[in-house]
């Protein structure tokens, strides 16, 4: 029936528009500072919803979601460890482990979220055992964000970074830059074609700035 056809056409157009808006917001997040991202979402809460729907769709196409890998990792370690989840999204980590988890994001998708810019989280220095960035190292002020993670981590504490594989230009340069920021590489899991999972331990405060090599390409999704 023609009306059925036009409804289907309309649904497809709406789907395309949402996909286009997702790609646009995503690109903005990767090309602005975290302060600018905070302003974007504050001024347009709908943008956040669209972003999250698109993000979940993208990661849903992958054979494995890195957040599950991080949950498995945390379950192998003592539940007494305090965790900070930077850019927590829908709080999969906080809702899957027994640990005390501080969940930070720009907009609350869940009541477990503390709303803040991850470059400035409301935690005391050296109060956290494990800091997590799961597909969340988005701002261009990467160094400032990682310095904040360093501040809240205890000496010897763990930093877990899961990032889209294609964002890394040069893993060795990235790991060297992390060393300057006070994070020693503990393990690298490059086995997924989609994401890299890097584990670091805090060795001390950031040594000097800026840390060359600390660059990640924006993750831009193709039109489908
Ligand atoms: N870690 C979650 C969500 C990843 S999506 C998961 O793996 O499922 C990236 C998240 O980082 C988004 O929820 C986005 O809102 C958040 N984010 C981006 N910039 C941020 C900032 N400056 N401060 C806090 N959260 C931020």
Mind explaining what this structure looks like?
It holds the Pfam family Methyltransf_8. This is Ribosomal RNA-processing protein 8. Probable methyltransferase required to silence rDNA. One of its GO terms (molecular function) is methyltransferase activity. Strand 4, helix 5 and strand 5 (153-164) form a beta-alpha-beta unit. The protein is an alpha/beta fold. Helix content is 39%, strand content 21%. It is built from six helices and seven strands, in the order H-H-H-H-E-E-E-E-H-E-H-E-E. It is globular. The two termini are 27 Å apart. The structure holds S-adenosyl-L-homocysteine. The site of S-adenosyl-L-homocysteine has 20 residues, from helix 2 and strand 2.
Strand content: 15-25%
Number of helices: 6
Bound molecules: S-adenosyl-L-homocysteine
Radius of gyration of CA atoms, rounded to a whole number? 18 Å
Widest sheet: strand ordering: 3-2-1-4-5-7-6
**Which class best fits the helix and strand makeup?**
alpha/beta
- Oligomer category: single chain
Largest sheet: 7 strands, mixed
Low-confidence stretches: none
How many E-type strands? 7
Task: Report helical residue fraction.
Answer: 25-40%
* Element pattern in H and E: HHHHEEEEHEHEE
Average residue-wise pLDDT: 92
Tell me, briefly, the overall form.
globular
Distance between the termini: 27 Å
């Amino acid at each position: 029936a023609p009306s059925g056809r036009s409804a289907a056409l309309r649904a497809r157009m709406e789907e395309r528009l949402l996909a286009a808006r997702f790609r646009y917001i995503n690109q903005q997040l990767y090309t602005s500072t975290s302060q600018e991202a905070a302003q974007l979402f504050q001024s347009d809460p709908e943008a956040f919803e669209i972003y999250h729907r698109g993000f979940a769709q993208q990661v849903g196409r992958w054979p494995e979601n890195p957040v599950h890998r991080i949950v498995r990792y945390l379950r192998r370690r003592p539940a007494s460890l305090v965790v900070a989840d930077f850019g927590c999204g829908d709080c999969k980590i906080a809702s899957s482990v027994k640990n005390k988890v501080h969940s930070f994001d720009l907009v609350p998708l869940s009541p477990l979220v503390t709303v803040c810019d991850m470059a400035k989280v409301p935690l005391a220095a050296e109060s956290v055992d494990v800091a997590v960035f799961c597909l969340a190292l988005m701002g261009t002020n990467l160094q400032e964000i990682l310095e904040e993670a360093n501040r809240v981590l205890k000496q010897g504490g763990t930093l877990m970074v899961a990032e889209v594989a294609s964002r890394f230009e040069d893993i060795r340069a990235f790991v060297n830059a992390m060393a300057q920021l006070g994070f020693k590489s503990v393990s690298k899991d490059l086995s997924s074609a989609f994401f890299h999972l890097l584990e670091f331990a805090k060795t001390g405060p950031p040594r000097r700035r800026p840390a060359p090599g600390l660059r990640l390409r924006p993750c831009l999704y193709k039109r489908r």
